[in-house]
């Protein structure tokens, strides 16, 4: 646990708003694999001498809505593509086509491997519920309900604000705090009583940008200092560290 963490992180909180991938489930690793497969294939297709690098995920993609991740990665390579539309076929080389291609790869991997939640996160959920806190998931992913169901966690989260909800409500994605603020609104709670739990820099920035109780950073690879610099109140390597 980071030295800045409080002795009682629960004090004054009424709800916990969790990111999903990388916080509750190790699906961030699946996302990273799917992004690598997508962009390695696309860059080879256009004859680019540049390759997808390990740091690209955390620098340009992690925690963002899918199509924002496509745009930001392509921008890092000075590539501009037509936007296309949400229903673009995955074979199309448009922003939405590439995003849908990545989604197909992700779902294929999840279907073949299944999803097992982090044991420490499961213990943390149980403790939060025992203390009477309300739980919600706030994820940029459009696959959040399916992943929660596959991991056996859906019963713990009466509210899920995912990429589909954000699009329907015209909410800007992380690093804006809108999706987290909307989750608090759905719970009927002031934001300053809601803890945000995130592993992505953009997600931590979202929590820090709003008037939330605190922002717990979970270091799954982004780096402790990086998450603190992004605005985390404190950082742990696993949520079980807070028990």
UniProtKB/TrEMBL annotation:
Glycoprotein recorded as keyword: no
**Pfam families of this UniProt entry?**
Hydrolase (PF00702)
Which GO terms label this protein's molecular function in UniProt?
A: hydrolase activity; metal ion binding
User: Which cofactors go with this protein?
Assistant: Mg(2+)
Record has Glycoprotein as a keyword: no
**Which InterPro entries does the entry mention?**
Beta-PGM-like (IPR051600), HAD-like_sf (IPR036412), HAD-SF_hydro_IA (IPR006439), HAD_sf (IPR023214), PGP-like_dom2 (IPR023198)
Q: Which UniProt keywords apply?
A: Carbohydrate metabolism, Hydrolase, Magnesium, Metal-binding
Superkingdom is Bacteria
| Family classification | Belongs to the HAD-like hydrolase superfamily. CbbY/CbbZ/Gph/YieH family.
Full protein name: Haloacid dehalogenase superfamily, subfamily IA, variant 3 with third motif having DD or ED/beta-phosphoglucomutase family hydrolase
What organism is listed for this UniProt entry? Arthrobacter alpinus
């Amino acid at each position: 646990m980071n030295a800045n963490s409080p002795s009682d992180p629960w004090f004054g909180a009424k709800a916990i708003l969790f990111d999903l991938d990388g916080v509750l489930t190790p699906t961030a690793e699946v996302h990273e694999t799917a992004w690598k497969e997508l962009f390695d294939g696309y860059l080879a297709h256009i004859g680019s001498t540049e390759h997808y690098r390990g740091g690209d995920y955390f620098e340009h993609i992690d925690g963002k809505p899918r199509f924002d991740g496509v745009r930001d990665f392509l921008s890092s390579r000075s590539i501009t593509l037509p936007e296309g539309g949400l229903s673009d076929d995955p074979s199309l080389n448009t922003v939405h086509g590439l995003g849908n291609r990545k989604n197909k790869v992700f779902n294929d991997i999840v279907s073949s491997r299944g999803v097992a939640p982090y044991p420490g996160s499961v213990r943390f959920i149980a403790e939060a519920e025992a203390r009477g806190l309300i739980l919600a998931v706030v994820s940029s992913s459009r696959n959040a309900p399916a992943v929660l169901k596959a991991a056996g966690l859906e019963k713990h989260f009466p509210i899920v604000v995912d990429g589909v909800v954000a699009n329907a409500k015209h909410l800007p994605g992380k690093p804006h705090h809108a999706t987290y603020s909307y989750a608090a609104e759905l719970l009927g709670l002031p934001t300053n009583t809601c803890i945000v739990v995130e592993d992505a820099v953009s997600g931590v920035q979202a929590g820090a940008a709003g008037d939330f109780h605190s922002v717990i950073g979970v270091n799954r690879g982004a780096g402790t200092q990086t998450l603190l610099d992004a605005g985390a109140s404190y950082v742990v390597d696993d949520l079980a560290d807070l028990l």
